[in-house]
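README, section 4: Worked example with a bound small molecule

Sections 1 through 3 covered apo chains. Here we extend the same pipeline to holo records, where the ligand is supplied as SMILES alongside the sequence. The molecule in this example is calcium ion. Nothing else about the input changes; the structure line simply encodes the ligand pose together with the chain.
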Amino acid sequence: MRRISTAVVLFAALAVLFAGSAQAAPATYADDAGDSFDGRASMDIVAVRYDVRRVVDAGPLSLVVEMELAEPPEGVLAYYIAGAQSEGCGTVWAVYSTGTTAKAPVFGSGPRGKFNVGCGSPAGLDGSTGTWLDAEFVIEGSTLRWSIALGALPRELRSGSTFRRLRAFARIAESATSIGYPADEASTDQTWSY
Ligand SMILES: [Ca+2]
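The generated complex, written as structure tokens:
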């Protein structure tokens, strides 16, 4: 009898442990509406959300980053970027490029969403270990959503991390440079762990 109850307690503890790691509470931070540099609602960040969940039923547990704008995003000449400093893998950026010349080597010629993470590659000549990863990327109304299966991330991010310095940018792009002009910025002091 004692052995059974010990097993039950152990199972319950493991269930809590796994539930905790699989269902981390999402983090959301907001930004004022109506504050984009050039007044366009399509360049106006209003909220950013981090989560680990299954995007589709029976799909893989995924890192999910969502950016809500005041209106649907631009289709040309814009970048939308959400970043955070991770524990173990440097900066994790979610980047949507509408497809400009300067980003073509990474993004190709069309609109595309990707992640750039600060680990997962051998150090290059400049010491960088940054790695570009394809995101599952969709635009649903005014919300941009990047996701990637946890198993597709470098091992430093697969089983959990803590994200700090959460911040996001909407940038007006022009074809000759990769930097662009800031249209809106958002940030928070809160941290997020999964
Ligand atoms: Ca805003």
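What to look for in the output: Residues 14-21 have pLDDT under 50 and may be disordered. Residues 2-22 form the longest helix (21 residues).

Section 5 describes how to batch many such records.
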